[in-house]
Amino acid sequence: MNVEVIPFLSMNGEAAEAITFYEKTLGAKVLFRKSYKEMKQMSPDFTYPGGQDEYITHSVLEIGANKIMIAEEAMDTERPWELGNSTSLCIQSQDQGQMDGLYEALTQHEGVKVLVPYARNEFSPGYGIVRDPFGVVIQLCVTVHDF
Asked: What is d(CA 27, CA 147) in angstroms, rounded to the nearest whole number?
């Protein structure tokens, strides 16, 4: 199986500061970064509150041989954001068939809750979010990037 499992940090308005911190302290290299303003330019239907132009909708950082993803939004909107429930696993691959199969396998389990149905969106041909029976939030993403 050719997939990556990447920790995803939801920063609740502090993503840009976190990225700068990880760059300075851990030598993180930013592989991808998209602000709310840039996302609005890509997708006019994307909305956000005023004053949040520079909030981060998605980023990928490389720290050593590993990656982390950072954005503002909580992945599990059924629970209030708090430090500790602000992480998720992001499983990604360029192989859409593989990602389709993983989503199908996960959602067959009666203890899995679909938070965002798997579908095409502005940044991926296939993206969805589920919560597993143990409370772990898992994002599934068909990536179009080579990072």
From this structure: 17
